[in-house]
Amino acid sequence: MKRILSAALSLCLCMSAVPAAHAWQDGTPQQNISAGMYTAAPAPYAEGSVPTPQEAYEAMTALKKQTEYAEGASWDNGNEYTWKGGTQGGIAAIGAGCVAFAYILSDAAFGDLPARMTSSVRFSDVKVGDILRVNNDAHTVIVLQVSDAGVVIAEGNYHENGSGGIIHWGRAMSRAEVEAASHYITRYPENYTPPTDPDANTPIGSGGLAEGLKWSLTKAGTLTISGSGAMADFSGASEQPWNGNADSILNIVVENGVTAVGSNAFNGSKVISATIPASVKTIGSGAFQNCKNLISVTVSEGVERIGDSAFQACTALKSIDLPASISSVGTAAFWECTELLAVRFSAGSQQVSIGDSLFSRCYKLGSVTLPKSIDRIGNDMFMNCLLLSTLNIPQGAASIGERAFSSCFRLASISVPDSVKTIGIAAFQQSAIQDIYYSGSEAQWSAIQKLGDVPSSLQNITVHYNSSLPDPGPDPDPDPDPDPDPDPGHEHTWDSGKVTAPADCTSSGVRTYTCTECGETRTETIPAAGHHYEVTAVTKEATCTEAGERTASCSNCGDVKTEIIPAAGHSYGPVTVTREAACTADGAQTSTCSRCGSVQNEIIRALGHSFIRNADGDYVCVNEQNAGGEPATVVSAAVADGYAQVRADTDRLTAGHAYQTEASAREYASSVTRAALSSAGSSLQYTINTVQFTPPTQTVDGEFVYTVTLRLGGRAAAAWLTTEPFYMVIPADGEPEPDPAPDPGPDIDREVYYLSIPRSSGGEVIPSVRRAAQGDRVTLTVLPDAGYELSDLTVSEARGRKISVWEMGGGGFIFTMPPSRVTVNAVFSKLPEDAGDYQYSTTIPDTLPGTSPGASDVILNPSPMNFSDVSAADSFYSDVRYCWQRYLMTGVSDTRFDPQGPTNRAMIWTVIARLAGRDTSGGSNWYERGQIWAKNKGITDGTAPLADVTREQLVTMLWRFKGSPYVNIDNLGQFKDAAEVSGWAVQPVRWAAANGLLNGASGSLIPQGRATRAEVAAILARFCQNVG
Question: Is the pTM of this model over 0.85?
Fold first, then answer.
């Protein structure tokens, strides 16, 4: 599978073939500098011998004029150089590849001055001429210039677009990248403070601009635009008055008073940072286009318009925040910003006009916060955003343009507002969208005009009506396979374009662009604007039960249409309990609609007994009181314990079992109970205790037949009652026969209960329903405010008993509705300034549902497991089913599990992090947060995330997760290949064998063999069941 390689960051690995400790002693050229391996001998610094940073810069850059050191000259590990900066063991330091080039520039600047090395890199310590070891200790660079935003470097053995190693001058690195360096070498004395350059602020160029503006470029690299008024537009970089010094520009400061940044004003410069003040209203087309070193841009509140291609191909820009004052962003404004990771629009009051191709070819863009309201999703807006996994489209968007999400290979879900009226051709072509959360009704969705291939694309997408986008989960595919860097050939420089055919409400238009260099033209479609309807009159008011009508008129063309106002539905207020429920008797409650006054009567189901042990050793029910105030019901300990087990197992039945329906089981249980009561001639009450299923047998017709046995018990029963077996037949497609939907009857017979959710400071909890019947699954979505996290979440019955709640990921929780109203309480706490470890902030159980032996409250995957490559006859069937039901593993597709396929290390980190209750969503890739957590906990070193995991690596990570328990027995002698276990893995493998995680295949452990997906499922299942 191909990897996505950024032209700016595809660097050499430069790893020595000999151990670092001997890299210099044997005269082998040094390719990999390791912190601590080298300490220069102390040497006095002669007064005046230390160059200033400016002198060091001039000495190094002078080499650019020599052919062998020119930009683009060939340079790889075959290039060697003996350094003057120090020795090791008396042997000269010889560098190769990127190290050699850094040494050459260092000697050019510092001569034979000795060097110092440190492994702690602080940005404030880094100076011109310092050598940095970067890119995960795989590449060496040397610093040419330093600014507040970052540094400019030179490097040898630089690789671009898969080419051979070359020399590259002038790449920018951010402060964060510098401080991530493994170590750096400096030849300045310790505690050295460079002298202030008296000429730093001396202009090396200055002049006037249109409307009385002025410009000045200092020797230190700061270009300042000052005065009052708008900058003029330039047709290209050649017209810029500072073009002759464009390579010297590090910082751009536009002073307050300037009202517009002209088109192509800084196009192609080497600027690292830029500041745009509040007085500027417009950033012109191409203003910062091709500023390959631009790392930091500050766009102040007050800026309203960003022109076409304003930041196009700013390949070092990683993030940008745009103010609420923005009203329009032009076509291709951030096109091909290949390192852009995050874009955030502040919420404003006005609708923002969005251009086409806005983020096209932003391959690494993974986080986008759009404005509160936009006019559309433009054509090609997110095309080739390979790491984008989810997107919330705000209200106001009238259309989703052609190819808007084309080739978004990791985009799994989007939200679509009900303002969308048109979806353009190929909008979802080659995207991974599985879910669309639509804010309107199914009827409104059906009315959207879907062009070209969109209807066929939607066949594999689930549309959720009247829904909003939930928090996304981790993406299972970190390594998409497109080639994002095709050879572009001649790169045209397009003008801002002219409208050659205007668009109207129903017809598209044409915009034509012309290359300013060769005259070639290209056209793009201007999508039809679509009608913009505004409500003009309500002709019929909607009621709780009847829809209304209203008329709306298009503000552009005057077209008039009639719209349906959906029925409002009843809004029942607080309930009034008219009869309290008792242990064995139902209660009743009423509520009144605040809109129409209708009254709803509801049943409160019997509470059931709650027993405590008294001084006599018997159990009494605390819910019932006799006339003297004493507990009324007294039962023996055995009966009370049995009743508690009945309650627990009833909850488990409610949680669901694969290939059975609760209604079918309960119906049979009811008939058995009635028969038992009839024969007993008493008021004996029986309750389902357990439901037992035999392994299924398959008929010649492909049907699966289960044998089902019910075990019943009651509060006054002397013994358990076991039913005769009955049979349940499942169709060949694996889905149970649906039970007929019960007739809910009139409102008076409905058995539903309300959820009460008090307001919480720091966040809110949103339920999937406001009321539910006993046994219904209720989903809670927790939304902490900015700067807060969830610290506790409880759900309690009417009598105060807490109900089990399971965390489902992405801020979602689920519980089963009891036979009473419930209260949901959430407690939020402030996040610390530095949260450090990615500790998931939610209170969750010590183990996942069902991972503890004998766990009775299990939330299982309710869908059938339909993998074509896993059958009941396979030895690994039960293990795969166990992991799949508990959401520990999924298939490689809806129909394939790929049992013999490999599993990578990153997946194991993620699974273990989830087992520990950590939230693994939200990183820059699907495994980052699991990787960081596992590394911080000592479970892994964090390397090689996509490498296949071996059997001994897998059990070692699980062993470390459980605290690295010591096993004082040698239990590996029974295995033929025990000697192949790595030394570091002996204790983990002993532990795994002792706990049944590794049983040995034909007497062999195969410790260094690749762990297949089936083997991982088996080991995880045994871990959860045997170790917990």
Answer: no
